[in-house]
Amino acid sequence: MEASERPDATNGNVEPGAAPPAVGAPDEVLAVFDHRHDEHLSPQALDDLFAAMVRAYPDAPVTPLGEAGIVVPLPASLQLEGNPLVEVRAASDAIVYDAGLLAAWEKLLSQGVSAHEVHPVGHPDVAIMLYMMDLRERHGVVISVAVYRGDVDEDEAAAAREEWADVAPRFATVRKDNRSNIVAVDEAITIILGWSAEELVGQRTLDFIHPDDHKLAVDNFVQMMAAPGPGRRVRLRHRRKDDTYVWFEVANHNLLDDPEYGCIVTEMVDISEEMAAHEELRAREQLLDRLAAAVPVGLLQIDAGRRVVYTNERLHEILGIERVDDARDQLATVIEPDRPRLEHAFDAVLFSGEAGDVEVQLRVPTSRALRFCTVSLRPLSLEDGTISGAIACVADVTDSARMREELKERATFDDLTGCYNRASIMLALEANIERLHGERAVVFVDVDRFKTVNDEHGHAVGDELLRIVAQRLQSVVRGGDLVGRIGGDEFLVVCPDIGGPAQAMTLAKRLAAAVRTEEVRAAGGSIAAQVSVGVAWSAGDELGADGLVAQADAAMYESKRQGTGQPQLASTA
Question: Rounded to a whole number, what is the distance in angstroms from the first to the last CA of the chain?
Fold first, then answer.
């Protein structure tokens, strides 16, 4: 109910630190929460307000909270009028969060009181005014009192109240003697564990603690017994009656010498949900570790400063380097020519969030072997989009890279002679004509009497002759010239920027002379190698690749007709 809807609700400021208005009727109590207080209300004013609230609303659920909004046990210094305690992990577990709740919390901490309308989880149509009081100075807690609005549907409000009332308790108290035998329990521990008070009292605490936690429990108890007062907190599993276990955070207080108690008071908080979350997280981490160990790629996680966060063993096997702190050092085996491309990829993923894949070569330190790797980079970012680092998957693709190069070589070069094949030499000639628009020559070379060699000495000798001819041709061409095999015994030499027809003929004569330098030795004797050579020259791109080769081919046939092994120049008319 808003202040404007309550009769006699006052407005304006309250004198700093003063007590609230006289509290009797509920509206007078609630009016305090509507005022803006220039200073935090005094501890006494807040104590009086809390007492008035639980008197005015004895059925309203009450929740004690710590500074972070986490539910904590109700201090013994606070007394309720029968109000049910809401024992969830945090207030946000019971109510639907909205942005105004944070502002209300900030007002509470600065002024001592605040109120905010909320809605229960599972019943969003039910409206509740959450009245909060900062009692930390005297009692160490913030108290919220949930008052259901009078204008809500009563059946749904009753259902919401019943659900809150049915929430299992999280806080329990057990009393023990100096030998850790249970002497008294509260109702909460019987609800949580399922044992009756009669079944618990008189038993040793260790009888209800998981065997794996016995040593931890005993050590904690011994330390607590060494000095009066509160002991160190410890997390232990306790056995329920159905033989399942519940996690408690346990704090033993040595009050044996305190005449009011004369025993050990053990405060227990059910942290099963928290531990289950930890266990789930641990299980996920183990799964990720197993996956990281099983995948056939190296994994490298870095932060925004390129510091190494995580690596798997496969990464070290690929790179040949154990884990180091800096990503650059981790990838130090990448060869120098490939490092700029890799650095650029890292810059792109860390500065722009741009994913990238780059292939690099590295030299393994132990074997000095050259390996091919692909590095796939993907950005890692925070919820607000800020790039927090990157993950790199490093795959050894040496075999596939070599296969790719082999296939590329097979598609480009002749298996027998190592020269360019017909398709690739013609593509090179076409590219030269298209790109350069300069002048060039092609030299068409045909091995004389090759059929006779095959017939008299066999194809193996014929193949050897072709290999020797190819080697002799390649030995005398210029650095930018290309030698290709375009047929059984036919070769084509592409000569860019030859300098004119005369220079083309000079090169052709060197080629012819190199082939007949010496005889080729064969099983049946020596073979005199000779070739017929035709030369075609052109400038610009008027004459295409096929036309230029056709001219050289015609000139070669003229050379063959003459039978002297001397090159012939095609007509340029």
Answer: 107
> Residue for token digits 């900030």?
106
Is 408 within a domain? no
∠ CA 392-393-396, nearest 5°, is 135
What's the pLDDT score for residue 23?
42
Q: What is the pLDDT of residue 84?
A: 82
The CA distances from residue 120 to 48, 255, 525, in Å, are 28, 40, 105
Question: Is residue 371 within 8 Å of 400, Cβ to Cβ?
Answer: no
Assess whether 424 and 564 both reside in one domain.
yes
Rounded to an integer, what distance in angstroms lies between the CA atom of residue 192 and that of residue 172? 9
> Residue 2: its pLDDT value, please?
36
Residue 314: C-alpha distances to residues 292, 294, 317, 390, 569 (Å)? 9, 9, 5, 18, 62
**Are 299 and 383 within one domain?**
yes
- Residue 282's CB is within 10 A of a number of other CB atoms, namely 10
Give the separation between CA 51 and CA 62, rounded to whole angstroms: 12
Q: How many domains does the chain have?
A: 4
In this prediction, residue 510 carries a pLDDT of: 94
Please indicate, yes or no, whether residues 219 and 137 belong to a single structural domain of this protein: no
Residue owning tokens 């193949």: 463
pLDDT at 156: 57
CA-to-CA distance for 235 and 221, rounded, in angstroms?
12
Q: Taking a C-beta distance cutoff of 8 angstroms, is the pair 177, 161 a contact?
A: no
- What distance in Å separates the CA atoms of residue 420 and residue 417, rounded to the nearest whole number? 9
- Predicted local distance difference test score (pLDDT) of residue 151: 60
pLDDT averaged per 10 residues in sequence order, the chain, 573 residues: 33 40 60 88 93 88 79 85 72 68 87 88 76 93 84 57 60 91 91 93 94 94 86 90 93 90 90 83 81 83 93 91 92 93 94 92 83 92 90 88 75 89 92 83 94 87 91 93 93 94 94 87 77 92 88 94 91 62
Q: Which two tokens stand for residue 272?
A: 């099963």
Which stretches of 69-149 are assigned E, i.e. beta strand?
Answer: 113-118, 128-135, 141-148
Whether the Cβ atoms of residue 390 and residue 380 lie closer than 8 Å to each other: yes
Distance CA 49, CA 83 (A): 15
Q: 323 is written with which tokens?
A: 């884990």
State the DSSP string of 71-88. Answer: B-PPPTT---SSPPB---
Q: What is the pTM of this model?
A: 0.45
Shared domain check, 421 and 531: yes
Q: Do residues 432 and 495 lie in contact, with contact meaning Cβ atoms separated by under 8 Å?
A: no
Domain encompassing residue 421: 413-569
Strand spans (E) along 464-518:
482-485, 490-496
* Per-residue pLDDT at 241: 94
Alpha carbon distance 171, 192 (integer Å)? 9
In this predicted structure, what is the pLDDT of residue 24?
A: 45
CATH code of 308's domain:
3.30.450.20
pLDDT at position 406 is 74
